[in-house]
Each structure stands twice: as C-alpha cells, then as structure tokens.
Specification:
By secondary structure, the protein is an alpha/beta fold. The protein has 11 helices and 16 strands. A hairpin with a 2-residue loop joins strand 1 and strand 2. Helix 2 runs antiparallel to helix 3 and helix 4 packs across helix 5. The mean pLDDT is 98. The structure holds 5-S-methyl-1-O-phosphono-5-thio-D-ribulose.
C-alpha cells in the first residue's frame, strides 16, 4: 500500500503528490513550518490526509519546542496550531485534527513536558490508523451500493493518496471490486490540478483496477452513452443539511447525474461532516493561485492580462446527493436528521 504520509524518527514523510505520476519521490519535513508548506503547496492533499498531516505537524512542532515550562510550551503550541490552521480553509478535517490535538494537549496539563510530547505523537499516529480503519468501514458500507458491473465515475482523487490509505470514494470502489464486482473506473481529469489523471489513475493502475481517464467536459457524454452506472466522490466538508463541498467540478457532475437518472454518492469519514455549519453557503471556498489555470506544465495557456478565477472547490446541494457513505453507516435524505443521528452514534462510540 502507498504510504501517503507517515511519522518517522526523522520527521513527517510524504509522498510528493506534485511530482506524480511520473516521479515517486518523498519529502521529509523536520519542522512544523515545513509541514504547513507541504499542505499549502499540495504535496499532500485530500481532506483526510490534510487532517492527519496537520496533527503530525502539531506533534512535530511540539516535539521540537525548546520550552522548559508549561506556559512557554502553551505559547509554542498555540503558535504551531495557528500556522497550520492557516494553510487551507475548506477541508474541515484540518480544523477537526487541530481541535483534537488541542483537547489532547489540554488533558495533559498536569504532566511533564516529555510525556506531553510523547502523547501528542501517539495521538497523531492514532489518527493515522483510525483513518485507514474508517476508510475500510466506508468501503464495506458503500460497496453494497455499487453496480455489479460497468462504469463508475469519480472526480478528483479521493483515494489512498487523499487519505492515510485505501481511500474514501476509491475505498468504496476497491471494496466492491474485492467483493467480485466488475467495475471499470472513469476518472475525471480534474482541471486545473489534475488530481484525477495524475493521482487517481496512478493509484488505480498500481492496483490493477481498470481505469479510463476522461477530460472533465466528457462526463455528460459518457453518461448519455450509458457508460456510467454510478458516481462516487469524496468531500472536503459536508454541512449539517447534507450540502457537500468537494473539488471544483463536482457540482457539474452531480447535476449531470440527476439529468441521467444516475445515483450520485459521496463517501467521507465522519470528521468531514461539520454539524456546526448549517448549509453549504457557509462553507469557505479556497481561491488558489491563477497560475494553476493559466499554465499547464509551466507553459502559458491564456493571454497575458485576462481575468482568471480559480476556486478549488464547489458546493453540491444535498438534493443531488443520493447517499452519504461514512464509516458509521449510510445517510440519506432528510440529511439534517440522518447526519444528526450519525453524530449521536459517533458520540456514543467515543464515550
Ligand atoms: O484540493 P485537493 O486535492 O485537496 O482536493 C481534494 C478533494 O476535493 C477530495 O475529493 C476530497 O478532499 C476528499 S479526499 C478523500
């Protein structure tokens, strides 16, 4: 299995996703500032992976702290959380992970500094293991929804590379294939960052899963020709009413799915569900550098001076979402109620 990110004795190690699919290289961050940079620059990306990277970044920053008393350590801790918290605004897993590290830190106040450092490292490692387990559980729930054969379309990369392993949307596909379903994946290229053609296609090819890459504007035609039986994507944040923020272009795919009578599934861990955000209009959407749109592989593709927009995500209203697959079970409309029930289940499990 690909090690998207891992804690090592020499720092936090990431597969460099900006170099895939042509180069499989690794970057080891030795400071929390370096971890913040790799999140911002998308060396690591995908909501669950961003969350665990943030937790490991916090643990690394605290490990390196020279503080010799609790109040200095607290000052350092707050600074580390602030810097990491300002990297990417949409994926709620980033803030979920920082909050969990804050809770761990707060629970250790009476302990000696070396024990606090050790506990934070362990907490981040636990989150890594929990993420893989959540993906496998999502796979078990979601596989039942996949067609027994035929094309399944996905957008962006919600696979092993976007998580600590196995993937959310691609985890559902993997589980269905493990159950013997004959699925052929259609991967949207996903302009402008090309997560579909560079990353989804790369990891599925590595696993020997039949995959066809299409450019984003081909999805409607493929649906019309009957090549797609279902759609499954990941999410960066799901509001309490079931509205889904995911990679730009997801909304278009969801509307097309509805037009063609195809089920549109979203697979995400419960940490992606933000019950404090009432609906999609409240989700902050990251605007990235225009250069991602204007240049392809370093070559300028648009005239100088032209206006460019580059929102990294869009919001799909819940009415287009057939079901939300989580590790705790499957939620369906009305989402307000089904997601709240999952929240209660999560709370009961954590007590
Ligand atoms: O900008 P990215 O590559 O971090 O965006 C990733 C996505 O939109 C994924 O679909 C989402 O994070 C779910 S990953 C399991």
């Amino acid at each position: 299995m690909i090690q998207t990110l891992e804690w090592t004795d020499s720092g936090v190690r990431f597969v460099d996703q900006t170099k895939l699919p042509t180069e499989e290289t690794y970057v080891t961050c030795q400071t929390y500032q370096e971890v913040a940079d790799v999140i911002r620059n998308m060396v690591v990306r995908g909501a669950p992976a961003i969350g665990v990277a943030a937790a490991m970044g916090v643990a690394l920053g605290v490990k390196n702290s020279q503080a010799s008393c609790m109040s200095d350590l607290k000052t350092d801790f707050d600074q580390i959380c602030n810097v990491i918290g300002q990297t990417r605004p949409t994926a709620v897993n980033l803030f979920w992970a920082i909050r969990r590290m804050r809770e761990k830190f707060a629970s250790m106040q009476a302990q000696a500094i070396p024990r606090i450092k050790e506990a934070l490292i362990k907490e981040a490692q636990r989150m890594h293991a929990e993420d893989i387990a959540a993906n496998e559980a999502m796979g078990r729930h979601g596989a039942t929804l996949m067609p027994s054969s035929g094309g399944v379309l996905t957008h962006c990369n919600a696979g092993a590379l976007a998580t600590c392993g196995y993937g959310t949307a691609l985890g559902v596909i993997r589980a269905a294939i493990e159950q013997g379903k004959k699925i052929h994946v259609y991967a949207d290229e996903t302009r402008p960052f090309l997560q579909g053609s560079r990353l989804t296609a790369w990891e599925l090819m590595k696993d020997g899963i039949p995959t066809t890459v299409i450019s984003d504007n081909m999805a409607g035609a493929m649906m019309r020709q009957g090549k797609i039986g279902a759609i499954v994507v990941g999410a960066d944040r799901i509001a309490a009413n079931g509205d889904v923020a995911n990679k730009i272009g997801t909304y278009t795919v969801a509307v097309l799915a509805k037009e063609h009578g195809l089920p549109f599934y979203v697979a995400a861990p419960f940490s992606t569900i933000d019950l404090n955000t009432p609906d999609g209009s409240q989700i902050p959407i990251e605007e990235r550098n225009a250069r991602e749109v204007t240049h392809i592989a370093g070559k300028q593709m648009v005239p100088d001076g032209v206006g460019v927009e580059n929102p990294a995500f869009d919001v799909t209203p819940s009415k287009y979402v057939t079901a939300i697959i989580t590790e705790l079970g499957i939620a369906r409309e009305p989402y307000q109620e089904s997601l709240r029930k999952l929240g209660e289940k999560q709370l009961a499990l954590s007590i």
